[in-house]
Write a structure and sequence with these properties.
The structure holds two protein chains of two kinds. In chain A, 75% of the residues lie in helices and 3% in strands. Chain A has two domains: 155 residues, no CATH class; 218 residues, Orthogonal Bundle (MetI-like fold), CATH 1.10.3720.10. Chain A has a three-stranded antiparallel beta sheet with strand order 2-1-3. Chain A is mainly alpha-helical. By secondary structure, chain B is of the alpha/beta class. The longest helix of chain B has 18 residues. Classes of the chains: A mainly alpha, B alpha/beta. Chain A: It comes from Mesorhizobium hawassense.
Chain lengths: 387, 312
């Protein structure tokens, strides 16, 4: 029997070998801001569990390395990820001296590399399985439920990032809702303004270049500069327009963050609307007119449904971009997960930075998966056909 | 009846259609033929006002076509184009139902009409109705395109190179289908083509256009026999002329008394087919059978050759 290697598996195996034997699994710190001491797997866990984890990781690494059946690769990646996520919590409890509330245990580079390697394996398996859109959303929900279960069960409570969370539980959810409101609200605004603007640009050719150029220029302004540029006009509006201050329009805070995100969102929405409408087959458009559809009927019955998947792609770009960009809003008092990131940077407390960064990444990731599934469904609906 | 009176279309300085007048009799097929850029498509699109003329009047059954809003006018006129223009996001049945739906027909009436047309076009409504256009072959798509144009029972059907994208075998079938359907519904058809063969085969009358002007408007035999200009003669194709002339006549009109050896040719085949068969088989005569299968006489090479000569 000849052994054959999987191309991606080689990369995964190299990462796994390095992370398991040379990198540290967890970091121990006497308090939240001092530099930490690295602990490899065998020192971070009780001996039997340490050996168990090493064995699981190595076996799963070998499964990844060789050309193995997809179902085995799927089992290996899930087993490794489950073992890692449960045992990092165990390491937290094991390394914390009894009764010590200042000590902080954080996952270290080895842990993150192992998570990365096996997530890569899982993603590769899921891609090769060619899952339907609904199944992909299903996998996402399962993963979310598993993480939620770990959080609720308290098995991660001894980890540093959850200790940061514990001392900020109230403000965490307030900032989370602000973050989501900012990202979704600016997206909604961009859709309400951008889609009609895109339709207008499609119909009036002279307008197209001008509008798209202006939006392109806005897109190139750095976000901090845009916040700065907005302070003066919004401050003026707040003072001079009756009622503006009452609904929260100010030079700093949520208003400029919202306006900036909205402006950044316009280009993808408008551009994709224009491209989508331009992609409608000429013959279909001509036939629609020739059969006596009014301009309105043609727009809503023919052009818009055909352009919809492309417009949705623009909305996906905007949503993922906005979830990330909303982090910056904290700089001007706009709130959101960025609050923890910037506080953490200020206090050199990396755990606090992670408390802001990890939910942001998770949200963006989930939004991308869900919208990709929706895009595929709208595009296949006309092929498979339910009507 | 369609009366086109002094129609002109100018874009800035360019005259695309130049003072064209012609009358299309009801229940006939008029083909408009010309090179690309001759203005034939523009002329067609002015009839249902997809293009508004610069000057002139078009009357449908005596009424000016500007007496209704454009979109309402177009709902009463069938429209089929090259590449079919089916809506890719709608099923075959939904595509055919487009105009009846715009006109507000009730569900039962729409369904009955869609089923009728699909059956007429040899597409099983159960099997093909729920499919999407991209799941059909090119010939089927084209048939659905014409069925859609006929859905609201229009008196007039405009066709812009409807068979241009089809391969020769399917095109011949589509042309026969169109003739059969025209006979059945008595629709007045105006068909634009650049293919003289198609124009001669389908048209009760042929309009030849060149550089925006109507050069000749006459019956096919007249066009072949007495081309109005050098351009028409070129379009007809000097080497093809006698054969096109023969293709206009049926074998039963060329029957001579007497008998001949071999398999009989049906009386409703074209004289061109008969001559081809005679030449290819090397025989001097073919027996001819009528619609009921009985022999009614024979055709001879000599007789057909005489008919292929320029009419005096």
């Amino acid at each position: 029997m000849t052994l054959r290697f999987d191309k991606l598996g080689v990369v995964i195996a190299v990462i796994v070998a390095y992370a398991a034997f040379f990198a540290s699994f967890a970091t121990f710190r006497a308090n939240r801001i001092v530099p930490g001491q690295a602990r490899p797997i065998l020192e971070a866990l009780p001996p039997t569990l340490g050996m168990l984890l090493l064995t699981i990781v190595i076996v799963c690494g070998i499964v990844a390395l060789l050309k193995t059946p997809l179902i085995l690769r799927l089992a290996a990646s899930v087993a490794a990820l489950v073992a890692l996520t449960i045992l990092i919590g165990v390491a937290g409890g094991f390394l914390t001296p009894a009764g010590n509330t200042f000590a902080r245990i954080a996952p270290a580079s080895g842990f993150w590399l192992l998570i990365f390697a096996f997530t890569l394996l899982l993603a590769d398996v899921l891609t090769r399985l060619n899952l339907s859109p609904w199944s992909r959303v299903g996998v996402l929900v399962l993963a979310a439920l598993a993480i939620a279960a770990l959080l609720v069960s308290g098995s991660w409570d001894s980890l540093s990032i959850l200790k940061e969370y514990a001392s900020r539980a109230d403000s965490f959810w307030a900032e989370a809702s602000k973050h989501v409101t900012l990202a979704l609200g600016s997206l909604a605004g961009a859709m309400i303004v951008g889609i009609p603007l895109g339709i207008l640009c499609h119909r009036v050719e002279k307008l197209r270049a001008a509008v798209l150029n202006v939006l392109n220029i806005i897109q190139t302004i750095p976000s901090i500069a845009l916040f700065g540029l907005l302070i003066a006009p919004l401050g003026w509006v707040s003072v001079h327009v009756p009622g503006a201050a009452a609904i929260g329009v100010r030079g700093i805070g949520t208003a400029p963050a919202f306006v900036a995100l909205f402006l950044y969102s316009l280009l993808p929405v408008v551009a994709n609307t224009v491209v989508g409408l331009a992609g409608v087959p000429r013959a279909a458009n001509d036939a629609a007119r020739g059969m006596g559809m009014t301009d309105r009927q043609r727009l809503f019955d023919v052009e818009f449904p055909l352009a919809f998947p492309v417009i949705l792609t623009g909305i996906r770009i905007v949503l993922v971009q906005n979830i990330g960009l909303a982090t910056i809003a904290a700089l001007i008092g706009g709130g959101g997960f960025g609050v923890f990131v910037f506080q953490g940077v200020g206090q050199t407390a990396m755990d606090l930075v992670l408390l802001g960064a990890l939910p942001t990444v998770a949200l963006a990731f989930a939004a991308a998966i869900i919208l990709d599934a929706v895009i595929e469904m709208t595009a296949t609906m006309r092929r498979v056909g339910t009507a | 009846m369609i009366e086109i009176e002094g129609i002109t279309k100018r874009y800035d300085e360019t005259t695309v259609v130049d003072n064209v007048s012609m009358v299309i009799e009801p229940r006939t097929i008029a083909t408009i033929v010309g090179t690309s850029g001759s203005g034939k498509t523009t002329l067609l699109r002015m009839i249902n006002r997809l293009v508004e003329p610069t000057s002139g009047v078009i009357k449908l059954d005596g009424a000016d076509n500007r007496s209704l809003p454009g979109y309402q006018l177009r709902r009463s006129i069938g429209y089929a184009i090259q590449g079919h223009g089916l809506f890719p996001h709608r099923t075959v049945a939904q595509n055919i139902a487009t105009v009846p739906l715009l006109l507000g027909w009730d569900r039962d009436r729409i369904k009955a009409r869609v089923d009728e047309l699909m059956t007429l076009y040899q597409l099983d409504p159960q099997a093909y109705g729920p499919r999407y256009p991209h799941e059909l072959s090119g010939g089927q798509q084209q048939r659905v395109g014409v069925a859609r144009a006929l859905a609201a029972e229009p008196n007039v059907l405009l066709m812009d190179e409807p068979f241009g994208a089809l391969d020769p075998i399917i095109r011949t079938k589509a042309q026969e289908d169109l003739l059969a359907i025209q006979k059945r519904f008595g629709t007045t058809i105006i068909l634009v083509t650049h293919d003289m063969e198609e124009a001669v085969h389908l048209g009760d009358k042929i309009a030849v256009m060149d550089a925006g002007k109507l050069v000749q408007y006459a019956k096919p035999a007249e066009i072949l026999a007495r081309p109005a200009s050098g351009f028409v003669e070129t379009l007809v194709g000097a080497s093809e002329r006698p054969f096109r002339l023969l293709s206009l006549g049926h074998v039963r009109d060329a029957v001579e008394p007497g008998g001949a050896e071999g398999e009989a040719i049906p009386g409703d085949a074209t004289q061109r087919d008969a001559l081809a068969e005679l030449l290819w088989s090397g025989r001097p005569a073919l027996p001819v059978k009528g619609a009921d299968g009985r022999l009614i006489g024979r055709v001879t090479v000599e007789g057909l050759v005489k008919r292929a000569a320029r009419p005096q």
